[in-house]
Design a protein that fits this description.
homodimer, alpha/beta, 210 residues, DNA-binding, two-stranded antiparallel ribbon
Chain lengths: 210, 210
DNA sequence: GTAATAATGTGAAGAATATCACATAGATAG
DNA sequence: CTATCTATGTGATATTCTTCACATTATTAC
């Protein structure tokens, strides 16, 4: 599928295009031009065409893109035409909220394991039916349940040690909500979600104009 | 303070540097070189120097950077040497978790208002002492309480209408957790936090290698 | 006071990314 | 079947961002 080196920015935008296209689909829009899609996504029309061009030709000249087709094409490009199993590590405020949050399921992700160290929490059942395991069991359980992606929602202080265990358990993808830079081997891909960084950026813009 | 046009990426990295420096400060490290700091932040040493060079000279040649000084300098650069008032809109799973999450307070941000539309929630008191207002009162309340930044944690469907009201209330900075692209006038700066985009990026990497 | 050392600050080179502009090709109407 | 129209796909161009490499300058030791 992939022949050239694809910019990370392209991958992220594809995700945004897909989101917008799925909304259009719900509104029963059949066909859309790069120009209109670009406006809705807040990007340049040529950007969309270039992004897609990395992977093939998906439009019809003089017409535009068939919305439902393009959604499926992007899903295939991103590897989303299959289920991905998630494990949540850390069931404090944030972890618990995320696991109950509908967006993961809506996009085809499935929680198959959840971990914490608090004896009060271990053994408890979550609304989605999962039972919380102790972090000590992490390595075994994620192998057993074929977890593909680990989500770290622990305090910053435990994040690195959890990441180490995830790697030992064979995980190659980590979504990290802890506000630290975690170190992993090259085989493992980490994405960070850090909202205080975003807040700082807003503070900067408010202070010194755009 | 700002003379050239600063890359957004630089601003985000300054935030990361600051975070790491604050940790170093707790470990009582006095001085650090760009090389060592770079390793801890996962960037190139020249990058750090260039980023800082946009704003002035903060290091000592042959020695490095005084950690506590640099933290303060970056705070000033980002406009963090003052309090910022936040309003949370939407107190579902995510909004409630975020407002209880210590990281905002830790970095000097203060919640001064909270809103929801659910009559069950309006009037209730949050653990931090705030009383939940109805979204109808949004415009007035945020003016009254001098809110600077609005955090949208509503479902996607309400995000745009909330954003409109925030703008009407004079807000120029929005942190958006809803998975939609919201449209605002140029005077208002929006940052999006969208973890499904990050998850999609991980899925892509797992599918087609790095 | 001088030399050696070390790590900054920065101009220049390089890489990556985004935008422009137009040739191309599918669709539709006459 | 031909002409017209429209929006894609893409080579060329422009821009933005990152890395290199080294001259510069504070510090320390002799």
């Amino acid at each position: 599928m992939k022949f050239a080196k694809i910019p990370m920015a392209t991958i992220n935008r594809l995700s945004i295009y897909m989101r917008t296209l799925q909304e259009l689909l719900e509104d029963e829009v059949d066909v859309i031009s790069s120009e209109r899609l670009a406006k809705q996504c807040g990007v340049n029309p040529a950007q969309i065409r270039k992004d897609l061009a990395y992977f093939g030709e998906f439009g019809v000249r003089g017409v535009g893109y068939r919305v439902s087709d393009l959604v499926n094409q992007i899903k295939e490009i991103l590897g989303l035409n299959r289920p991905w199993n998630l494990a949540m590590i850390g069931l404090g405020n944030l972890g618990s909220a995320l696991i109950r949050h509908g967006n993961f399921v809506k996009h085809g992700y499935i929680f198959t394991a959840a971990f914490d160290t608090d004896p009060q929490k271990v053994g408890k059942r979550l609304p989605n039916g999962l039972t919380i395991n102790h972090v000590e069991e992490l390595e075994d359980v994620i192998k057993e349940r074929e977890v593909h992606i680990g989500i770290i929602a622990t305090p910053a202080s435990s994040a690195q040690s959890v990441a180490n265990q995830l790697v030992l358990g064979g995980i190659n993808g980590i979504l990290n909500f802890a506000p630290v830079q975690i170190q992993v081997p090259d085989c493992c891909h980490v994405e960070n979600v850090d909202f205080t960084i975003k807040l700082d950026a807003i503070a900067y813009h408010l202070s010194f104009g755009s």
